[in-house]
Amino acid sequence: MSLLEVDGLTVAFGRGAPAIRDVCLRVDAGQRLGVIGESGSGKTVTALAIMGLLAENARLSGSIRIDGDELIGRSDRELARLRGDKLGMIFQEPLSALDPTMRSGRQVAEVLRLHEGAAAGAARERVLAMLAEVGFDDPERVADSYPFQLSGGQRQRVLTAMALINSPDLVICDEPTTALDVTVQATVLGVLDRVLSDAGAACLFISHDLAVVSQLCSDIAVMLDGQIVERGSTADIFDQPQHPYTRGLVATARLDLVAPGDRLPVIGDFYAGERR
Amino acid sequence: MASSVARRLGVFVLSLLAASVVIFLIAQALPGDVARIMLGNEASQADVDALRAQLGLDRPLPVRYLEWMGGLLHGDAGTSYLSGAPVSELIAPRLGVTLWLTGLALVLAVLVAVPLGMVAALHRRDAGGFVVSAVAQVGMAVPAFVAGIVLVAVFSVRLHLLPATGYVPLRSDPLGWARSLVLPVVALAAVQASVLTRYVRSAFIDVLTEDYYRTARAVGWTRGLAMLRHGLRNASLSLVTVLGLQLASVLVGAIVIEQVFVLPGLGQLLLEAVAQKDVLVVQGIVMLLVVFVLLINALVEVAAVALDPRVGEEVA
Amino acid sequence: MKRLELGVGVTLVALVAAMAVVSFVWTPYDPIRIVPADRLLRPGPAHLLGTDAFGRDLFSRLLVGARSCLSVGVISVGIAALIGVPVGLFVAQGPRWLARVVLRATDIAQALPALLLAILLAGVFGGSTTTAMVAIGAAAVPQFIRVTRAGARQVLSSDYVAAARSAGIPRWRTAWTHVLPNIGALIGVQASVTFAMAILAEAALSYLGLATQPPTPTWGRMLKEAQDFLYLQPGQVLWPALAVAGGVLGFNLLGDGLRDRLDPRLREAA
Lengths: 276, 316, 270
Known about the structure:
The structure holds three protein chains of three kinds. By secondary structure, chain A is an alpha/beta fold. Chain A has helices at about 45-50, 75-80, 105-115, 120-135, 140-145, 150-165, 180-200, 210-215, 235-240, 245-255; strands at about 5-15, 20-25, 30-35, 60-65, 70, 85-90, 170-175, 200-205, 220-225, 225-235. In chain A, strands 6-7-8-3-9-10 form a six-stranded mixed β-sheet, with helices on both faces. The model of chain A has no long low-confidence stretch (mean pLDDT about 85). Chain B folds into two domains: about 1-75; about 90-310, Orthogonal Bundle (MetI-like fold). Chain B has 13 helices and no strands. Chain B has helices spanning about 1-30, 35-40, 45-55, 60-75, 85-120, 125-140, 145-160, 175-210, 210-220, 225-260, 265-275, 280-305, 310-315. The model of chain C has no long low-confidence stretch (mean pLDDT about 85). Chain C is built from ten helices and no strands. Chain C is elongated. Classes of the chains: A alpha/beta, B mainly alpha, C mainly alpha. At the B-C interface, helix 1, helix 6, helix 7, helix 10 and helix 11 of B face helix 3, helix 4, helix 7, helix 8 and helix 9 of C.
């Protein structure tokens, strides 16, 4: 039994056509699976479905199991107990994902207290330790800062601290570095890599950037138009991409192979989907 | 932060001056001659002139304005043309009733509107939310004085539970005081709560789309608790401003409600003065109410700075 | 549900208007004729809603009451729009400092709401239909200025106005040909909401005896008279109360319904 088992997951909103169809995923304990695809391919819907955070008008069918426990059909109250404890999530928009009226340290401590009922003093110690772990040299100052006083990369690390402070079994990262500068991206990815390893947590890493995914993940699933079209180990995907869309992704990610002066490859060279 | 408070203080003082000029000019635009009206048509021109001089009405408008303003700064709003009593002495004993009425109604309105607005926002797609919104929409359409009359018809006339009219001072009989205020406060609060519920609802619907709300849900808060914990703090920023703006309408609502329940407040004094064309009293009370509204709104702006850590920083 | 809002709003407004129109051609009885023998009759076949303490027919008075409610609404909204819209248009195109001064002035004006202004005017000139209309209209001017300015700025920032400008069309002309037609619906929303406010204010003022003077029937005065006989005949309160609430609800719903149909870019201004 894997840690996360998703089978035949289909999600539609209101009376619309399904946003994702028949999605199947397996993530073992400690394993890191990258889910790659363009915007609108259904990556985020899949992630939010696992977290139980889809809009109220979402209709789900299929199965999502954590440690064998079915999540679909559970009440919000029951799912809330898993979120932030067993399941952590890091979002794309570090600039707006923190409460602007509350100091960062308190927002991290809140997660701890919510699930463990830790006392304020003890919580503070653990918050500072966690902030140090995500790479802050001055955790005290960061804890006492409001989000607007921190940079984008710093806020993303605060969010990482919030997602990991309860040592979750699975962390879902939804394009955590997309909104950041390239140099900051590298720092945040490095921190993520380290804290995930230290905690031994599994990770579902969602991105449109194959280069980023390949740095962090051992396995990759490729999503296109709401379905998973290919999956395999990172090495296999790079060496023997099967689906034409995947071949396009790999070619555009391996720009080091393009000879100077040649035209840069685009995905359209490999895959002309129905919508193109 | 200090400089932004100073700037707001400046704006407040300018607002007061502007309002006082407008009120003064309207009040002094009185057609006809106050002295003539007071003495009647049979009085001799000499008597009328003497009274004009005594009341200071023979001097030019700007001088009279400055005198009035100068007096106001010392808490002296002039003397009633009719009773000869200082306006401030007429106002003082009436103030308590109106302030209790207004303050309690506002508190009650907030206590009702915040939970209702939150429920309406969380259930905006189902029947529960629809019912709350519909009730608020209807509540907004019922004037406070009509609500007051209906409450009297039910709780006083039919059920004999509470007094229909009258006021008992708090010091002489706290229970009687509370009983005399229940119906007026509820009537006044009903309308305000309806208006406020709609604001709270839309403020919380805005919160629902915020990323920090999703983060709060992702770390394990249920919908309602995420709303209370993180939504309320953020929504309160705009709600405090709305409350300040509501104050003026609550105050005028109180004036009318005082008539319904025969409460000896500012409104009763104001309407008596209007009936007798006692202009200086009318002018004094209207100015007092406007000062009060402007003052509270200035304080609200400062409070908004205090509530939002970002505002102070950006100005500094 | 949005369509429901607009439908109910239009129906209620039409009902109030119909009452006023019908009252000109037909009322069951003379609404101001005093008939001592018919005092305080309960509703029945002869008098649909009963009679008041002077033996006057309440249904007739209710019909005629719609007139003063509507006329005060129409005139005061007219005053507010005729002053507020041109000023708002002017401020939208004028220099920044002017906009700041005018907006601050509209802030201050909110401290002197319609009812208080009307009471002040009544204290000086005596309460009448005119003082009520002028006060309610004047108190609503600031919102018209704000809404018009916000809407006009939205339109002025659009590409087609920039194109007209660069083609050499003068400012006042673009305001007339592009801005005004585009913010017409927005002003309609404001007019509707202001109308609801005017009905509320008129009812309160005539309840206080500071608007239309007797013997002309108004809903506010009917409420006052009903309150005086609350112990004898509590049911009298019901109909004028429903009439006021229905009118206000109608115009509020109409305003909300229209707002939802606005161009989304203009909705922020409303």
